[in-house]
């Protein structure tokens, strides 16, 4: 389809979406039928006793709910080059690696052409609604995207991060062109082997095409903030390169240097303009529209663990709208942001009923339905039965289950979502948190969202001293009895001991979970500890994941560092500058 068109037909895309979402229940039945017919010959489904049945009732009766751990042996056989169909009818040729920031190591997930098609459908759908609200002309996009090397599995399959598999697919570039969002950086920069060099070149390309830049984007908000924090450090060097038309010696890879040499010509007027713009900014407020006067919006995933970066991103963006990108994971896509004018904190995602088969486990009836075992969430048999896409209720929270075209059947994604409403007959979901990222010692249960709210509340105290929390994480220390919460903060500058002690107390008081408060009062949980780490510590964590093969565009700071993530915990503990214990209880 893309080969025949230059620009997407936005109104047709919206019209198709409206028709499909008005009949979400039937579309879901047809989607499940298609998945099971395409993959019915696969060993996994053959063993389930479906005997050719494709209806939801038989599917749920025969196929169990699974986690990645359950499917790992099957995926490993695929990666090892098993000849027979294991999970899918057609052979899997590519493996995606998850970011690894949740559990400390990447997971293998199947990736195929069908998953690429759903990726493009999500991109097209959200672009259609976005472009109706914020139309962009045929310019360029400053995209902070990075592609890691493709390696090969034992069986000869290509393996790379999910974003790498998308960015390296020839359809991706065609899709960006069709959406008038072509990256201003050459391919050599995107696939460059060193992230720091690629980031520098992305910034340089953005400046060269500064008047043509229509949007600034990355997979995650974190990458955009990191890019402009880096700009603050290297802007004078960038101006030197533009003035002289010669690339800095810090860029060492010949392919990247050669690609940049084709773009970089001496331009002292542009260098003077950038210097003038930078020198008149107050603390870099409004940097993005100052550098890129025609930018229409800033785009990337800004919900969930990305929300803490919004304050800094708004500082750089000034009045430029922030639009959160779509909802998905390495395992597959779920929904598109069709209300782009909403602020990121209010973003919802409309589920596309034809990109997979979706079920939802109600959480309200199951408040005590999971327990902690050795730091892992263990799901009990008392859980409510999953409900279908059109059976969810507004205001309720659910865990997401996906059945995809890429060999995942009734797969527990581990995400908690809240149903905020319906678009026609498909639900609009708000991402709440990861279900298994939980601070807990005994009866207390604090999620990633609870941690974020506590940090935001305590950070107000240092904001009065014009300081900010650059990044944060947490851990449960049970090396002594009673165990206690540990919060790690990296701060933008010096803060007095007196204020940091009050921050520590504020953090402790801000966890309002009844189990936590009662446990603190009876000293079943010890005083919360705030550990302030040296500046640059969280960059060391990023570098650690890059060494493991992650890419920046897929990186998420781990908000909870559990027992399986010893190396990251060691980095944090080795870089503690000061620590404080709460006296709040």
TrEMBL record:
<dbReference type="GO" id="GO:0005737">
    <property type="term" value="C:cytoplasm"/>
</dbReference>
<dbReference type="InterPro" id="IPR055378">
    <property type="entry name" value="GH3_C"/>
</dbReference>
<dbReference type="InterPro" id="IPR004993">
    <property type="entry name" value="GH3"/>
</dbReference>
<dbReference type="Pfam" id="PF23571">
    <property type="entry name" value="GH3_M"/>
</dbReference>
<protein>
    <recommendedName>
        <fullName>Jasmonic acid-amido synthetase JAR1-like</fullName>
    </recommendedName>
</protein>
<feature type="domain" description="GH3 C-terminal">
    <location>
        <begin position="449"/>
        <end position="561"/>
    </location>
</feature>
<comment type="similarity">
    <text>Belongs to the IAA-amido conjugating enzyme family.</text>
</comment>
<dbReference type="InterPro" id="IPR055377">
    <property type="entry name" value="GH3_M"/>
</dbReference>
<dbReference type="GO" id="GO:0016881">
    <property type="term" value="F:acid-amino acid ligase activity"/>
</dbReference>
<keyword id="KW-0436">Ligase</keyword>
<feature type="domain" description="GH3 middle">
    <location>
        <begin position="349"/>
        <end position="434"/>
    </location>
</feature>
<dbReference type="Pfam" id="PF03321">
    <property type="entry name" value="GH3"/>
</dbReference>
<dbReference type="Pfam" id="PF23572">
    <property type="entry name" value="GH3_C"/>
</dbReference>
């Amino acid at each position: 389809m893309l080969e025949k068109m230059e620009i997407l037909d936005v109104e047709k895309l919206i019209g198709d979406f409206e028709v499909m979402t008005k009949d979400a229940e039937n579309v879901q039945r047809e989607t499940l039928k298609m998945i099971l017919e395409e993959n019915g010959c696969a060993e996994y489904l053959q063993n389930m006793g479906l005997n050719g049945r494709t209806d939801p009732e038989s599917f749920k009766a025969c196929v169990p709910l699974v986690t990645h751990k359950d499917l790992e042996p099957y995926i490993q056989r695929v990666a090892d080059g098993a000849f027979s169909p294991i999970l899918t009818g057609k052979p899997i040729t590519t493996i995606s690696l998850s970011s690894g920031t949740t559990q400390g190591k990447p997971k293998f997930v199947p990736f195929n052409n069908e998953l690429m098609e759903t990726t493009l459908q999500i991109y097209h759908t959200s672009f259609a609604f976005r472009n109706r609200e914020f139309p962009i002309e045929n310019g360029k996009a400053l995209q902070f995207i990075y592609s890691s090397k493709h390696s090969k599995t034992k069986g000869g399959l290509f393996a790379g991060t999910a974003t790498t598999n998308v960015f390296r697919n020839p359809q991706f570039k065609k899709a960006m062109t069709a959406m008038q969002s072509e990256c201003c950086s050459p391919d050599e920069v995107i696939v460059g082997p060193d992230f720091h060099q690629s980031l520098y070149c992305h910034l340089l390309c953005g400046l060269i095409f500064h008047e043509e830049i229509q949007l600034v984007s990355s997979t995650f908000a974190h990458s955009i903030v990191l890019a402009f924090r880096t700009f603050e450090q290297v802007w004078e060097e960038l101006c030197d390169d533009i003035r002289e038309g010669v690339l800095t010696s810090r860029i060492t890879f010949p392919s990247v240097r050669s690609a940049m040499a084709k773009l970089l010509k001496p331009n002292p007027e542009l260098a003077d303009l950038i210097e003038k713009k930078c020198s008149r900014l107050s603390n870099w407020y409004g940097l993005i529209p100052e550098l890129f006067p025609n930018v229409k919006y800033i785009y990337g995933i800004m919900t969930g663990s990305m929300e803490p970066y919004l304050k800094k991103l708004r500082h750089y963006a000034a009045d430029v709208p922030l639009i959160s990108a779509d909802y998905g994971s390495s395992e597959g896509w779920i929904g598109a942001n069709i209300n782009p004018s909403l602020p990121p904190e209010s973003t919802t995602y409309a589920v596309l009923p034809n990109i997979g088969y979706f079920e939802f486990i109600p959480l309200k009836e199951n408040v005590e339905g999971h327990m902690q075992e050795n730091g892992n969430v263990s799901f009990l048999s008392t859980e409510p039965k999953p409900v279908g896409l059109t059976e969810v209720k507004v205001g309720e929270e659910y865990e997401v289950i996906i059945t995809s075209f890429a060999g995942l059947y009734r797969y527990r994604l581990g995400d908690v979502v809240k149903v905020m409403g319906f678009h026609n007959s498909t639900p609009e979901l708000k991402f709440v948190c990861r279900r298994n990222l939980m601070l807990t010692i005994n009866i207390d249960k604090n999620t990633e969202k609870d941690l974020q709210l506590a940090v935001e509340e305590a950070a107000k105290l240092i904001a009065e001293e014009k300081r900010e929390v650059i990044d944060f994480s947490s851990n449960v220390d049970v090396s002594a009895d009673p165990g206690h919460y540990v919060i790690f903060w990296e701060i933008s500058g010096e803060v007095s001991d007196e204020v940091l002690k009050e921050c520590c107390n504020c953090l402790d008081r801000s966890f309002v979970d009844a189990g936590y408060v009662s446990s603190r009062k009876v000293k079943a949980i010890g005083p919360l500890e705030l550990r302030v780490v040296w500046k640059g510590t969280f960059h060391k964590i990023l570098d650690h994941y890059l060494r493991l093969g992650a890419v920046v565009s897929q990186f998420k700071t781990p908000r909870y560092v559990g027992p399986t993530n010893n190396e990251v915990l060691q980095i944090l503990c080795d870089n503690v500058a000061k620590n404080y214990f709460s006296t709040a209880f």
